Amino acid sequence: MISTQDISGIVLAGGRARRFDLSGQVDKGLLLLQGQPLVQHLVRRLRPQVGPIFISANRNPEQYVHWGRVVPDTVELEGYLGPLAGLASVLDQVTTPWALSCPVDLPFVPAELGKRLIKAVQEQGAVAAYAQAERSHPLCLLLRTDQSAALKEYLLSGERRVMSWLHSIGAVEVDFRDAPAHAFFNINTPQDLETAQGW
Description:
Blueprint: E1 7-12, E2 32-33, E3 36-37, H1 38-46, E4 53-56, H2 61-64, E5 69-71, H3 83-91, E6 98-103, H4 113-124, E7 128-132, E8 136-144, H5 148-156, H6 162-168, E9 172-175, H7 190-196
Parallel strand pairs: 1-4, 1-6, 4-5, 7-9
Antiparallel strand pairs: 2-3, 6-8, 7-8
Protein name: Molybdenum cofactor guanylyltransferase
GO cellular component, one term: cytoplasm
Keywords: Cytoplasm, GTP-binding, Magnesium, Metal-binding, Molybdenum cofactor biosynthesis, Nucleotide-binding, Nucleotidyltransferase, Transferase
């Protein structure tokens, strides 16, 4: 049986947020939603579902440290190789057998995200499970941490596509279409942030 203490939480906050601001200067995880940073909203959701929390962040570590242990992309994976690079870098630091990751721009993820992904990996004997709602959310992911070396090898081969990697390790999809409509609302633009302020 997988317990919450067997799982590290990973907040993926290392991107450049170019869809939010073409300059790449915006640190999306620190944007305010209802007066609190996006990272705080997500950590509040994840905390009851996991043990230790890690933040994958390449900027502003002095701010992110308030919500978890900050891990930048490792030197061999530098250059903004995408969210899998952040995930791989954090997995090098994790000591639990499982990790539950989520992008920082999904502040409303379901409270039962971890529980349902755990059920799927246990029932199907899988090394990973991810959420599917109106579309796939492959980074809302429960992953067995012994997949770390395979992930790094995948990235160093020049690949970075999340779904291709998940298919290669036999990850299972978990249906969350019964979740509230905004559970997987993705804040990618200023308009999205304005919409989310109303919830």
